[in-house]
Amino acid sequence: MTARPDGTTGEAAAAALPGQADLVIVGGGMVGVTLGLLLAQRLPALRVVLLEATRFPALDPERPLPYTPGFDARNTALSRRTIQAFTDLGLWPQLQPHATPIHHIHVSDRGHFGLARLNAAEENVESFGQVMENAWLGVVLLAALKRCPSVTVLDGVRVTGLRTAADHAEVSLVAGAPGDRSGQAGGEDAAGRAPEAHVLRAPLVVAADGTHSRSRDWLGLSASWRDYGQTALVTTVATSLPHAHTAYERFTGDGPIALLPLPDEPGAGQPPQTRRSLVWALATAEAERVQALPDADFAAELQRAFGRRAGRFTRVGRRHAYPLQLMVAPQQAVPRALILGNAAHSLHPVAGQGFNLCLRDALVLVEHLAAAVRDGADLGDAARLRAYEAARQQDQAQIIRFSDSLVRGFSSNHPALSLLRNIGLAGFDLMPGAKPALARYAMGLSHV
């Protein structure tokens, strides 16, 4: 019988699973955990259960979280609105040491004359946002959530179904993370027994189980997909020049390159301010070739693609690959359930808006749930969930359109389109209101 990290057996863990909650969150990634924290602060009387298939590793405040599907190798550019949300939760003092502020944004199109710059001081703000590794975000957020008495965190449980009824939603689950003999579909435990399904009921279920959400399918919600034919190579690099808190967005004919400042790594022996996050989007076949290159060859190819603005690329970390797609669920709520985070919309990382948009969704959802509690209303009421959907439509549509247009507009090598976009970049400094408008997008304040 498989033992859980807390020492309980699978059988004992199954017996301890609750049968009822006020709200269930399916998915313990960045969005699901943040939603749990927001609910614990704003609505502490609600009994919230968070379900995550992966078993969370032991938390060490001195080390980043080992990579999990929900807190992976990528880095996140946290907008000012997102930072404010974490400040309101009382968590920013713990997050700040692991984050690096963005004071400058530099946008260019390789091989062309167009260039645009943003300076935080000129916009009268401290920064446009801060860059943080998801693994450090996971350490702080998970530790905080496990201190919340109103939230029960159940990791290592696999959701096998979700259905809605007139007065509640039902989540079917079994104890055991994917990969455990007792937790696989149709599998058996060490004694040859099939895992026993458990049913958890709640007036409302919020599914934040990722881009390929099974909950979305169980709820009968469709999704539209656009495959960009690109894969993002993500790694950490060191440069010969300090980053000076500058975020670069370099568009090339092969795909965009984002180079973001990161905190110094203690004991790494690198000069200050030379550690950076790289997100390099390439056609998928090309990405596979480049990912497999030796470090020196990878750095040389990156140098040719990016240029010398950051100096020489002197070190390259382990590379991770993520396919790039746009996924949007036109409908995100049904009576008793809704989808959130990447289950509702998953964006190309070119504009750095994905998590920030999801966080704004979560903030608005909590406001609607707080109003329902104040009015003594049903949390899963269909009309209230439709009102939440309507409240988020404009912000979602604009950010999705903005991100998608950047990818498609700068991926084309058509001479006429190339000329137009470079005229736009070159004239950026002269267009009244252009810088403040783009700055508000970057800071996540365009709809606040």
From TrEMBL:
Keywords: FAD, Flavoprotein, Monooxygenase, Oxidoreductase. Pathway: Cofactor biosynthesis; ubiquinone biosynthesis. Its cofactor is FAD. One of its GO terms (biological process) is ubiquinone biosynthetic process. The keyword Flavoprotein applies. Signal peptide: none annotated. Residues 22-403 form the FAD-binding domain. The keyword Oxidoreductase applies. Transmembrane segments: none annotated. It holds the Pfam family FAD_binding_3. PANTHER family: 2-OCTAPRENYL-6-METHOXYPHENOL HYDROXYLASE, UBIQUINONE BIOSYNTHESIS MONOOXYGENASE COQ6, MITOCHONDRIAL. This is 2-octaprenyl-6-methoxyphenyl hydroxylase.
